[in-house]
Amino acid sequence: MKGIVLALVGFFWIVSSVQAQQKLIPGGMNYLANPKPNTIIYHDSVFTGKKQFMQLFYRTRNQELIQLFERHQSNKVTGQVLGVIGTIATLVGVSRLSSTNDKGMGWVLLGGGFATTLTGGYLTLMGQRNLQMAVTLFNQKYANTAIGIGVSSARAGLVYNF
Question: What distance in Å separates the CA atoms of residue 47 and residue 56, rounded to the nearest whole number?
C-alpha cells in the first residue's frame, strides 16, 4: 500500500511540471519540435522543410549556423533511414523466430533491428537538438529588435527595426 501511494505521489509530482504550450519569443525565431515536419516560426511566418530552413540560415552567411543546420539534416536523414531498416530487421527477426528452425538468426535480426531502431531515434533527436541550437544562436546574434522615435522640424515618427 505504501508503494502505491509513493508511486501516485511521484506520478502527480511529475505531471504537475508538464506544460501544455510552448512559449514563443516575440520578435525572435522559435523552433517547434514536431515529429514531422520540423517547424520554425519567424516574424509571423511559418517555415517548414529543408528549402525554407536554408533560406533562413544561409542568408546570414554565419558558418556556425550553417554547420548546425547541416548536422541537423544529416542526423535527421541518417536517423530516419536507420529507423526504417531497424524496423524491417525487427519484423523479419520476429517472423523467423516464429516460423523457422533457425532461431539464432531470428534473435540476431531481432536484437540488431531493435538496436538500429534505437540508434535511428537517437540520431533524429540529436538532429532536433542541433536545429534548436541553431535557432538559439540565431536569436542571440540576429534577433535584435529596436524601437526608436524620430523627430524632425515638421514631423515625429516611430521606427521599428527588426
Answer: 9
**What are the φ/ψ torsions at residue 68 (nearest 5 degrees)?**
-65, -40
Residue 66's identity, in one-letter code, is I
Torsion on CA atoms 91, 128, 130, 32, rounded to nearest 10 = 170
pLDDT in tens, 17-62: 666 666 777 777 888 777 667 888 887 778 888 888 888 888 888 8
Q: Which position has the grid cell 533560406?
A: 55
- Which residues are within 8 A (CB) of 40 and not within 5 positions of it... i.e. 6 or more apart? 29, 30, 31, 32, 46, 47, 48, 52, 53, 56, 131, 135
Strand partners, 30: 41
Contacts of 129 (CB under 8 A, 6+ apart): none
pLDDT tens digit sequence for 98-109 = 887 778 888 998
- DSSP-derived letter for residue 113 is H
Q: Given a cut of 90, is residue 157 above it in pLDDT?
A: no
Mean pLDDT of the 65-77 span: 91
Q: What is the DSSP string of 4-16?
A: HHHHHHHHHHHHH
Here the cell at position 49 is 522543410
